[in-house]
Amino acid sequence: MLKVKNSPLKPLALAATIGLTLAGCSSERAEPMPEPMRVATLTVVADVLDNQREFNASVVPADLTRLSFRVDGKISDIAVLSGQSVKRGQLIARLIDSTARDALTDAKAQYALLDRQLRRAQTLAGQDLLSQAELDELAANHRLAKANLKAAELSLRYTELFAPFDGVVSEVNKKDFETVQPGEAVITLYRNDRIDIQVPLPDALLSQVDPGQPDNQGYQPIVRVGDTGRSYPAHYLEHTLELDPSSRTFHMWLTMAPTAEPIRPGQPVTVVVDMKAAELDLPEGFTVPMTALQAGASPDAFYAWRLEDNRATRIDVTVGELTQSGAQILDGVDAGDRLIVTGLSRLRNGMTVQAMPQNPTTQPQDQQ
């Protein structure tokens, strides 16, 4: 068998294989690295203190009352419409009263019969022709008949529903010929001799409101109505001690006299408060746009992203008041911190990012 020694083809093949392998590695290493994500930022600056603060509020019905019948039955007539003004004592709804009238007629007849029997028995007892036991029994039956007569009269009276005060019909909950139970809402009515304003406030402000202090009662916040530019003074009415789970704020109510222009429940208004005149203090903090915050696991948990050496760092923050200008951060940031305001959902702690140039003429609350 013929053997070929020291063939020049083997070194050439080996060199070609090594060259191709090195070329493949070089091409993989030559792939460009992805560019860091570009983000917009803002620099945290101290708030400019202003004595006047504005709060978004809304008009709510004053003394909203749900009216109902005291007896069951079928509605004969609804005498009012939604939005209609009514006077105190005005008839607003009626039940079919045929059964109540029949019961009243029977009660009157029974009472009249027992009343005659008692008078006759009293005469006979005076002549010793009737025992005291028989007289006592007739007297008891007479009292029972009188009580039944009064109950029948009330039942007939309760088939009519009257307005308890001057007001406006907010809603008609039932229709003619519907059957209702005692206590079931038929008409919803609110007062029209005053206008109530509901204002959401943070706990830091509401805790300073003391209804017993003359200063709080004497100061009058200003209620500005829509785009009309008209403003009206208001008075403190009451406030709640329960946190609203949806807005995470507490509610305070103001009240004011009726105005020449129509102001209806549900209408948005702005409440302007002079913090110094009202002797209220706001906690110091930094106002940032809502785009600089992300919600945490719980309703009152928030965090932000701070830019440090081109890296995103997640920080927990304490958020106070929410205003038209943004959110007030009470703790977690310092003046001069640079916060990321775009792409927060794609950030990871320690992630390298590229900050876009800031516009020095743009205020932090205006950056989006």
TrEMBL record:
Key words, A-Z: Coiled coil
Protein's name in the database: Multidrug efflux RND transporter periplasmic adaptor subunit VmeU
Top-level division of the source organism's lineage: Bacteria
PROSITE patterns documented for this protein: PROKAR_LIPOPROTEIN
Cited InterPro entries: RND_pump_MFP (IPR006143), YknX-like_C (IPR058637)
Recorded family membership: Belongs to the membrane fusion protein (MFP) (TC 8.A.1) family.
Lineage of the species this protein comes from: Bacteria, Pseudomonadati, Pseudomonadota, Gammaproteobacteria, Alteromonadales
Chain ranges of the YknX-like C-terminal permuted SH3-like domain: 287-354
Chain coiled-coil ranges: 104-155
Gene designation per UniProt: vmeU
Gene3D superfamilies linked: 2.40.30.170, 2.40.420.20, 2.40.50.100, Helix hairpin bin (1.10.287.470)
Species of origin: Ferrimonas pelagia
